[in-house]
Amino acid sequence: MTSIPQEAVGSRFDPHQMLHARERTWAALRGIRERMRPGITEEEAKAEAAEVFRALGMERLWHPVIIRIGANTTKTYRERSEPVRLGENDIYFIDLGLVFEGHEGDVGDTFVIGHAPEKQACADAARELFRATAEAWRSRGLTGEALYAFAEQQAEAMGWRLNHEIKGHRVSDFPHSVHKAGDLGEYGDRPSSGLWILEIQIAHPTEPYGAFYEDLLTRD
Domain of life, per the record (predicted)? Predict the structure, then answer.
């Protein structure tokens, strides 16, 4: 690990446990996806998520479960959802922050049910934009600030609007918040592997839907 204050970790920190928490959190996300069906509300999905977490041995949440459906996919985590049920041909995303073995996982992804090709294109674009931005970090040594400038340029070139309020953040052994690291998009150094979450949220330029993808930045 580095000696930069924004990348400080606790005495229990173990990079292997970070990867374990990441893998378990992705498993939880897949478990919730299997339960998503037409007619379900965001609150119902969150209630069912608790069963998934128990089966996986989650210790605790480090941020609230976020499930957004339809037009709510354009909202940030600070904004309240409008009441909505998942439609037959609809889009939704899942954002999880879970703790396993004292380490924080944080993942998010967007899915489409039924036949909604334009919404599927949005979900695919969020994943592709994440992949391209993460690869730019690996290959070009970009700072956190430069990463989000790159993501904005790429999103525009792809025909989507990047949500500027979503800028990524630190994770660590729980709780990472004691280190006061700030947002990845405001970090002036090159972020180290295994410590930062790259968050990508995009929206259609005119239609009321968007997509979200996030994962741990790693060298691999």
Answer: Bacteria
What is the three-class DSSP state of 53?
A: helix
The answer to whether residues 144 and 191 touch, using CB atoms and an 8 Å cutoff, is yes
Element (H, E) at 215: strand 210-216
* Tokens matching residue 171: 């994770």
What CATH number labels 11-216?
3.90.230.10
Burial category of 127 from C-beta neighbours within 10 Å (exposed 0-12, middle 13-18, buried 19 and up): middle
Bridge partners of 98, per DSSP, are 61, 105
3-state helix, strand, coil in the chain (%, to 5): 40, 25, 35
Cα(105)–Cα(19) distance, integer angstroms: 8
pTM of the model: 0.96
CA distance 79 to 96: 16
Q: Per-residue pLDDT tens for 174-197?
A: 998 888 788 999 999 999 999 999
CB atoms within 10 A of CB 130: 22
Map residue 146 onto helix, strand or coil. helix
User: What tens digit of pLDDT does each residue of 38-53 get?
Assistant: 999 999 999 999 999 9
Assigned token pair, 12:
């229990």
The pLDDT of residue 178:
86
